[in-house]
């Protein structure tokens, strides 16, 4: 009888371990699918800005097309080069204070993901609705800046995997912005 109890305990333990392994497998599969989707979205966003032939077109793609491509609610950016700066949101491009761009782009990390009570002022009239934002530092040989992606709902983002992809997005945008003079 003792062997039978031991056998039942072993079977129950084995069933728990199988259930845990299935759950872990499901979580890994969901992560892989999500990562693949995020990588595809980032690549599509980079391909979209590669078609820009001028700064205004670049700004329109980032602020109007990227939200749909990247699955966010808003996108904005600021860029300063050669002592001149601009900012762009869904309403268009406007002159901006170069010192503010340098200060904003001075974030410690290339990508910062955070929950907020109100979005960054670069989001313009949409700032009050933003609850999660991603700040991506832009840096080139001549310029410096910041891209902001915002979501109206507070969400948790898988920071390590997302950060690598978002750094790629920022580096690609920096290279594109270096093409054009702000004069």
From TrEMBL:
Superkingdom assignment: Bacteria
Pfam families per UniProt: DUF484
Protein name: DUF484 family protein
Classification of source organism: Bacteria, Pseudomonadati, Pseudomonadota, Alphaproteobacteria, Sphingomonadales
């Amino acid at each position: 009888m003792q062997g039978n109890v031991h056998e039942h305990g072993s079977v129950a333990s084995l069933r728990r371990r199988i259930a845990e392994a299935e759950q872990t497998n499901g979580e890994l599969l969901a992560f892989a699918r999500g990562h693949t989707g995020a990588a595809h979205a980032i690549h599509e966003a980079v391909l979209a800005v590669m078609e820009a032939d001028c700064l205004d077109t670049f700004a329109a793609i980032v602020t109007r097309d990227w939200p749909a491509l990247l699955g966010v609610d808003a996108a904005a950016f600021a860029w300063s080069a050669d002592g001149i700066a601009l900012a762009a949101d869904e309403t268009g491009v406007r002159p901006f204070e170069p010192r503010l761009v340098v200060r904003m782009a001075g974030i410690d990390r290339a990508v910062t993901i955070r929950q907020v009570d109100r979005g960054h002022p670069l989001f313009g009239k949409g700032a009050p609705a933003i609850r999660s934002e991603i700040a991506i530092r832009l840096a080139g040989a001549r310029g410096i800046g910041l891209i902001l992606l915002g979501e109206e709902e507070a969400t948790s983002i898988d920071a390590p995997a997302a950060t690598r992809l978002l750094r790629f997005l920022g580096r690609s945008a920096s290279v594109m912005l270096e093409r054009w003079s702000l004069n």
